[in-house]
Amino acid sequence: MADDAADTQTQRRRLGEWLPREETHLARYRCDLAAKARERADNSPRTRAVDELAALVQGDPVLRMDMTRAIAQAREAGYVLGYSSIDELMTIVDYLMTYAPPFSESGLIHCPLNAVLDWPMCMPSGYALFRDPALNAQLKHVLNCWCGFLSGPHSREHLNTSPPNGWFCAEADRRIALSQFVCDPRQRYWGFASWNDFFTRRFRAGERPVDEPDDDRVIVSACEAAPYNIQHDVKISDTFWIKSQPYSLQDMLTLHQPELTPRFAGGSVYQAFLSAFNYHRWHAPVSGVITHAYTVDGSYYSNADSEGEDPSGLNDSQGYITALAARAVIVISCDDPAVGQVACVFVGMADVSSCMIEALPGQHVRKGDELGFFQYGGSTCCLVFEPGVIGRFVVEPPFDDNGPPLRVNAAIANVTGTRDASR
């Protein structure tokens, strides 16, 4: 095995700490998960959504071929998956339908299904497999089923102070700083109704003040997220799938919204990624009236091809998924004409099954007002500006992906005021 391939067997660069970087830790996790799944499968029927996923894959010769080959290619490359067949994989997926992720001091695995599929989806056969619309539609049902469990009371088994798995233990509190969130240690489960209720926890009043709330020309961060990329002169259509890929507006905003893309052609994109430990609600980066608010069905485990070729490099799929992954788009027509319209694209990645929009078209929002939230799993967000609006951002590349996130409601840019108002 070549040196660079050998390196990926032990460590893989990750953004947001949704999965550990050490492959050996993930391999142990997958094997342990597989053992527990096999044990439970002997005594429990499969979840209907997983049965339907298995029937789809086994009943479609192309999907069956691609999934079988992707598993085989990952194993032949030397990766320990914990399974060797489609049926064994489905047994693990079914086990995850009633799985609530524990905290871990040594190697947090926040996205268990992503951990299970991590290498097959980066194999040659996996690229086509996880871009298949029918497969993704069924994966959405599976993830919604799991999301239903995570939204119920039985998902709270690790919402306690007991180390090493409890989310309220001393080490977890050091990472999360629970005192800044709305919760009550005197109550059972600290007042959280479910795992998803904990995941989408709210800041206490005053924890994230809005920078320059009365100045419409100061743009603030829509999420608690670390800067990933900035690009100017964005094209309506571009080759988003290549390494270090550009953004493609018609693919980000979809062809179903043809009036939007020309407005942003030649404009700027600011992208940031959320951490497993961060806040997962979205806030308005500007004040104005919402003109569009819609969700886009997309892929869940599709990676850019360069992820398999160079897993130790920068996570290229962060940009790639803005055109392919399930996402929510909210467009705000700003109170200040110099700002024009701002498109907020909230992208679900990995195990995210739901992007929940709370602010609707026709509604006026003030900078810092809540717009919606992610329901569980990895995520990234983009702010798209019209040309001539942003000359320079407060934060500029190169970015340190190990650095702290930029706080939600903190200033990210100032408007230059050179936008063509006739657009």
From TrEMBL:
<dbReference type="InterPro" id="IPR022237">
    <property type="entry name" value="PsiD-like"/>
</dbReference>
<protein>
    <submittedName>
        <fullName>Phosphatidylserine decarboxylase</fullName>
    </submittedName>
</protein>
<dbReference type="Pfam" id="PF02666">
    <property type="entry name" value="PS_Dcarbxylase"/>
</dbReference>
<dbReference type="GO" id="GO:0004609">
    <property type="term" value="F:phosphatidylserine decarboxylase activity"/>
</dbReference>
<keyword id="KW-0456">Lyase</keyword>
<dbReference type="InterPro" id="IPR003817">
    <property type="entry name" value="PS_Dcarbxylase"/>
</dbReference>
<dbReference type="GO" id="GO:0006646">
    <property type="term" value="P:phosphatidylethanolamine biosynthetic process"/>
</dbReference>
<dbReference type="Pfam" id="PF12588">
    <property type="entry name" value="PSDC"/>
</dbReference>
<feature type="domain" description="L-tryptophan decarboxylase PsiD-like">
    <location>
        <begin position="48"/>
        <end position="174"/>
    </location>
</feature>
<keyword id="KW-0670">Pyruvate</keyword>
<keyword id="KW-0210">Decarboxylase</keyword>
<keyword id="KW-0865">Zymogen</keyword>
